[in-house]
């Protein structure tokens, strides 16, 4: 059985990225009007922002059999064997991760591996993992 969990999205983060990307071109437009360079730079920024939006909305965590697959935009991470997951903890770590939200969980697996993700419905996600591997320690479902 295959079940996909989309990433939770922090819209304030997405809006901040939008403002950072387009603040300078807007000020240049107000100051100097439209120019070829401004159109060229704005076009490039629109393409890059489209890529960022794709990453935000294209991040998902797929449980298929005994594997957890993490997809972030165009990138897929190596599958994680669910029976190798040791613990799942809430985290505030802002390290770069396949997570489109600040509401994150850290999954520790293997010998020393860890991945930080942000499933939209983290309680259902963690329960699904725990149903497959009951030995997972977790603080996610605790109040």
Number of helices in the DSSP assignment: 3
Q: What fold name goes in the CATH topology slot? A: PH-domain like
Unreliably modeled segments:
none
User: CATH homologous superfamily?
Assistant: Pleckstrin-homology domain (PH domain)/Phosphotyrosine-binding domain (PTB)
Question: Can you characterise this structure?
Answer:
The protein is α+β, with helices and mostly antiparallel strands and 143 residues long. The chain has a single domain, classed as Roll (PH-domain like), CATH 2.30.29.30. Helix content is 38%, strand content 29%. Strands 1, 2, 3, 4 and 5 form a five-stranded antiparallel β-sheet that branches. Helix 1 (11-32) runs antiparallel to helix 2. It is elongated. The two termini are 30 Å apart.
Task: Considering the chains and any ligands shown, give keywords for the structure.
about 140 residues, alpha+beta, PH-domain like, 3 helices, 9 strands, about 40% helix
What's the short story on this structure?
With 143 residues, this protein is of the alpha+beta class. It has helices spanning 11-32, 36-57, 122-132; strands at 2-6, 59-64, 67-72, 75-76, 80-81, 85-91, 104-109, 113-117, 137-138.
SSE layout and pairings?
Layout: E1 2-6, H1 11-32, H2 36-57, E2 59-64, E3 67-72, E4 75-76, E5 80-81, E6 85-91, E7 104-109, E8 113-117, H3 122-132, E9 137-138
Helix pairs in contact: 1-2
């Amino acid at each position: 059985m295959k079940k996909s969990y989309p990433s939770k999205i922090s819209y304030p983060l997405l809006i901040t990225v939008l403002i950072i990307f387009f603040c300078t071109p807007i000020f240049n437009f107000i100051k100097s009007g439209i120019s070829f360079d401004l159109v060229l730079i704005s076009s490039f920024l629109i393409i890059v922002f489209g890529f960022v939006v794709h990453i935000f909305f294209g991040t998902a965590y797929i449980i298929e059999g005994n594997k957890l697959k993490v997809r972030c935009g165009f990138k897929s991470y190596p599958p994680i064997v669910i029976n190798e997951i040791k613990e799942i903890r809430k985290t505030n770590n802002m390290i770069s991760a396949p997570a489109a939200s600040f509401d994150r969980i850290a999954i520790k697996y293997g010998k020393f591996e860890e991945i930080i993700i942000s499933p939209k419905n983290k309680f259902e996600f963690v329960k699904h993992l725990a149903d497959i591997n009951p030995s997972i320690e977790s603080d996610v479902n605790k109040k």
